[in-house]
Amino acid sequence: MTVEGSVDEGEGVDLARLLVRLDPDQRAAVTAPPGPVVVIAGAGSGKTRVLTNRIAYRIATKSAEPSHTVAFTFTRQAAAELQRRLAREGVERSVVAGTFHSVAYRILRRRWEDRGRHEPPTLSTNRIEVLTEQLRGDRRLAAVTATEIEWARARLIGPKDYPRAATSAGRRPGADVEQVAKLFADFEAYKRKRRILDFDDLLSECTAEIRRPGVADAISWWHRHLHVDEFQDINPLQYEFLEALRNGGDDLFIVGDPAQAIYGWNGSDSGLLDAVRNGPLRPITIELTTNYRSTPEVVDAGDRVLASNRVGGVHRADRPSGRQIITVSCRDEAEESRRLVVLANELRPPGARWSSVAVLGRTHEILRQAAVAFAAAGIPTRTVTRRGIAGAAGNDPLRPARSAGDSQDLHAWAIDLAWPGSGPEGSDGSGDDGPGRGETDPDDGLSLAGDPLDPVRRAIDTVRAFEEAGGGDGRAFAAWMDLNNVESAVEGDAVELVTMHAAKGREWSTVIVAGIDSVGMPAPIASRSAARAEEARLLYVALTRAADRLAITWAEKRGGKKAGRSPLLPDLALREPDASDVPVLLPERPRPAAAAAPTADPGAAVMARLRNWRAAAARAAGVPAAFLLDDRSLDRIVATMPATQDDLAAIDGIGPLLARRFAGRILPLLSEPGGSRPAAQ
């Protein structure tokens, strides 16, 4: 498994197997004749399968050579997944799959070597740090400027044109546009003087290199079968690079969905998809409208969001009808955070992992508040970020490799890491949640962990990918790592807290979309119609991450401001949660004394009192009963019959905070007639 560089053609591609699992539209896309093809792939429509099978089909039918085939993705994870799927179809080792930046870097390194450039420019992977140095420590202004430079470069806008373009686009950078333009110009001069390239320079430099006299034909010949995933997210800088690489050729296969274009704020231009679709290439266009991921209820909700905001898109669910969507209106953000915990606890099916549940929020603040509430309830969470390969605890198994002297040192480190007892802190390379010892790969002698998300295994895979991309010393490796946008390793079982943007391309069985109120969605900056439409598409993306169960929450007041249901959320004929979703247990109605049956089980009487108390307390607090104490906690109380506050705190799922709050109410219930707790000593 590698990112960029990679897979030898396999003679084991089974054409019948490639095609038998496809619906008619997917098959049409996979088997389209060589030439320009545009696939409009809705959420859950199997686009990755189509892209994988298209590449495998072309190679199997000898209409494309694997060593001349390139697949552009927007993350390293997407590239790795594509290569895993290609390998399963019998395609191995020479298809190049990677991000635009990593492919550009690969081409540039080869060109520098061909030209005998032994000291290539330094690659800077942190624009903010360079700007902070220029601004003598003003990190806030550096961050503002870095964001604006990224937007401008993506749109092919230089310092001179930035003020007009930013004003026209309605940008609000948090600094004077003329000041940003000057800092932009100073930054470009700083890089030239010190021979520094940043990420965006890779694309512009590579584009210029391809266009050098006598170079374009050779480079485009080596990269002549082009495939692009998530084309709606492409920006003008990436498009210019792609066009230079295409060099007038027409062997282009692109997959995209206008309804999932959510990165306009960062420079992406979904109009480029229309430009290709309706341009001189005159491509074959195929639409995939069947959603295989989600229930009809989820698909319908997503389509209604698009329709009510005039974004378009009609999709069909392949699955049978499922659960109705739940909506929850909360008094404020504090109550919303508590409700998220209850929903996660009750919507998760018995025996399901916490990681099958995700809470999606428009902002990091919503997720931060959710994390606090989940922690108070003792439910593990994981906030998904893209800060490198380090695990949740900050353990970075790649740290020693970053200081390696050369490629041989890196390779030796990777081999050492794989053998039992030689990894960080004695790790044997197998993840805690993996199926045990991994199998030895006969091609490289590395014992790999069974879990592909294990940090050690990912470290080894990453070094192998770097070596296949040309290798180098630890410094080059660190830069190459940053190019590939490696996501944090996922460890343990936990509810995932994810921003809506970061959720794109992922799915969960249960999804709770939080903060869908007029204060948080659309975002305050989305005052223009185009920005508002993008917010609607973002909401569509969030809703369609759900496979089986979907809940939506909002606050009537947020941050002290009046809020209420977001105008982006139409009337979906949804419902508030009922007893089948979040049970709120009412007190049992007392029976007449004459009809009361004798209590055979003293524990049953205790449980009845606990349930009655919980229901009354929950009503008084305005929260579901399960939020105070879930049924498992009540069962443990009855089973252990705690005598003191400390005993209560020791019960799994309660802890000292809940014990301190409820001991005065719970302990007397255990001592009433019918209880079986021994007297406190």
Automatic annotation (TrEMBL):
<dbReference type="GO" id="GO:0016787">
    <property type="term" value="F:hydrolase activity"/>
</dbReference>
<dbReference type="GO" id="GO:0009338">
    <property type="term" value="C:exodeoxyribonuclease V complex"/>
</dbReference>
<dbReference type="GO" id="GO:0003677">
    <property type="term" value="F:DNA binding"/>
</dbReference>
<keyword id="KW-0347">Helicase</keyword>
<dbReference type="GO" id="GO:0005524">
    <property type="term" value="F:ATP binding"/>
</dbReference>
<keyword id="KW-0067">ATP-binding</keyword>
<dbReference type="Pfam" id="PF00580">
    <property type="entry name" value="UvrD-helicase"/>
</dbReference>
<dbReference type="InterPro" id="IPR010997">
    <property type="entry name" value="HRDC-like_sf"/>
</dbReference>
<dbReference type="GO" id="GO:0043138">
    <property type="term" value="F:3'-5' DNA helicase activity"/>
</dbReference>
<keyword id="KW-0547">Nucleotide-binding</keyword>
<feature type="domain" description="UvrD-like helicase ATP-binding">
    <location>
        <begin position="20"/>
        <end position="295"/>
    </location>
</feature>
<dbReference type="InterPro" id="IPR013986">
    <property type="entry name" value="DExx_box_DNA_helicase_dom_sf"/>
</dbReference>
<comment type="similarity">
    <text>Belongs to the helicase family. UvrD subfamily.</text>
</comment>
<dbReference type="Pfam" id="PF00570">
    <property type="entry name" value="HRDC"/>
</dbReference>
<dbReference type="InterPro" id="IPR014017">
    <property type="entry name" value="DNA_helicase_UvrD-like_C"/>
</dbReference>
<feature type="region of interest" description="Disordered">
    <location>
        <begin position="418"/>
        <end position="453"/>
    </location>
</feature>
<keyword id="KW-0238">DNA-binding</keyword>
<protein>
    <recommendedName>
        <fullName>DNA 3'-5' helicase</fullName>
        <ecNumber>5.6.2.4</ecNumber>
    </recommendedName>
</protein>
<feature type="domain" description="HRDC">
    <location>
        <begin position="600"/>
        <end position="680"/>
    </location>
</feature>
<dbReference type="Pfam" id="PF13361">
    <property type="entry name" value="UvrD_C"/>
</dbReference>
<dbReference type="InterPro" id="IPR000212">
    <property type="entry name" value="DNA_helicase_UvrD/REP"/>
</dbReference>
<feature type="compositionally biased region" description="Gly residues">
    <location>
        <begin position="423"/>
        <end position="433"/>
    </location>
</feature>
<dbReference type="InterPro" id="IPR027417">
    <property type="entry name" value="P-loop_NTPase"/>
</dbReference>
<dbReference type="InterPro" id="IPR044876">
    <property type="entry name" value="HRDC_dom_sf"/>
</dbReference>
<keyword id="KW-0378">Hydrolase</keyword>
<dbReference type="InterPro" id="IPR002121">
    <property type="entry name" value="HRDC_dom"/>
</dbReference>
<keyword id="KW-0413">Isomerase</keyword>
<dbReference type="GO" id="GO:0005829">
    <property type="term" value="C:cytosol"/>
</dbReference>
<dbReference type="GO" id="GO:0000725">
    <property type="term" value="P:recombinational repair"/>
</dbReference>
<dbReference type="InterPro" id="IPR014016">
    <property type="entry name" value="UvrD-like_ATP-bd"/>
</dbReference>
